[in-house]
Amino acid sequence: MNARTYTDPSVLAGIAAGASWADPEMDPTRIDWTARRAAAAIPFPLVNGRPVNPAAPTGVRFGRNELGHWGEALAADAIVTASDPDGWRWLLLIERGDGHGWALPGGHVDPGEDPTHAAFRELAEETGLIADPIDPWVKTLPARYVPDPRASDEAWMVTVPVRVDLGRGWTVLPDVIGRDDARRAEWLPAVDFDCLCRHLGYHGERLFPAHRGLLAELFAG
């Protein structure tokens, strides 16, 4: 079976437009990988000068699929929860504008940006919710690989999850609105992971595959 090569036209369009998320270099062997590998949150190998996804194979051996950055792209995601007076937990999710379902608010960490601050920046940009990253209920979790459906063996996502628990007693949850890359932003019931998935499935929606494992571990039980 031949190794599949694919780069989505949206990546090529991003390069042509000078988008910051799209590496302009088309040949990864011409990239100096020393600095990128040193800064990577999760170590990865090179084979013949090309980066290799630490969780490969993905089904796309060569090329970037739908991701613009060769190798690891670092993101930060905000896991924001609040509970009502009865202890019922609610999770803030956004509907992605690219059709990949409902996801945690989040996005790319800018060069030199602290991932915790990146998560709060993306939270404000995508939902309008302003929170303080130094509040005591904020917990930044270790970086982890996520199985993003847009990835390839040469371009993948790693995220830094940031847990934000707003506490109990909310009779009316904070107002949110979908903005930027988000079509909608809503508080969804998440007593446990199955509760969240049942609610989405009942409405004919689905959870972004990259966040399923993360949320399943967090809301186990």
Automatic annotation (TrEMBL):
<dbReference type="InterPro" id="IPR020084">
    <property type="entry name" value="NUDIX_hydrolase_CS"/>
</dbReference>
<protein>
    <submittedName>
        <fullName>NUDIX hydrolase</fullName>
    </submittedName>
</protein>
<keyword id="KW-0378">Hydrolase</keyword>
<dbReference type="InterPro" id="IPR015797">
    <property type="entry name" value="NUDIX_hydrolase-like_dom_sf"/>
</dbReference>
<comment type="similarity">
    <text>Belongs to the Nudix hydrolase family.</text>
</comment>
<feature type="domain" description="Nudix hydrolase">
    <location>
        <begin position="69"/>
        <end position="210"/>
    </location>
</feature>
<dbReference type="InterPro" id="IPR000086">
    <property type="entry name" value="NUDIX_hydrolase_dom"/>
</dbReference>
<dbReference type="InterPro" id="IPR020476">
    <property type="entry name" value="Nudix_hydrolase"/>
</dbReference>
<dbReference type="GO" id="GO:0016787">
    <property type="term" value="F:hydrolase activity"/>
</dbReference>
<dbReference type="Pfam" id="PF00293">
    <property type="entry name" value="NUDIX"/>
</dbReference>
